[in-house]
Write a structure and sequence with these properties.
single chain; alpha+beta
């Protein structure tokens, strides 16, 4: 039982949720200390469009389930920068 609860808590801490996908923007809710997880999810989404994820903004921390603080980050899918020669 304790092992199951521990696994569930770890899953919640590392989880992030896509709140909205609108064309070239994606909004992701994530644990406040897990920005990297949201960034990877946004990058994966933008790669399906042949683009790169650019961070637009992150909301202030908010308390949520089990006292875990969460934030919402917005990313825009932009064309990759041209290679420098």
């Amino acid at each position: 039982m304790r092992k199951t609860i521990a696994i569930a808590v770890l899953a919640l801490l590392g989880a992030c949720t896509v709140v909205e996908k609108t064309g070239e923007e994606i909004t992701i809710e994530h644990a406040a200390n897990q920005f990297f997880v949201a960034e990877v999810k946004a990058e994966n989404y933008c790669q399906t469009l042949g683009r790169h994820a650019q961070h637009v903004m992150t909301s202030p921390r908010q308390s949520s389930l089990l006292f875990v603080q969460s934030s919402v980050s917005v990313f825009r899918c932009v064309l990759p920068a041209p290679a420098k020669t």
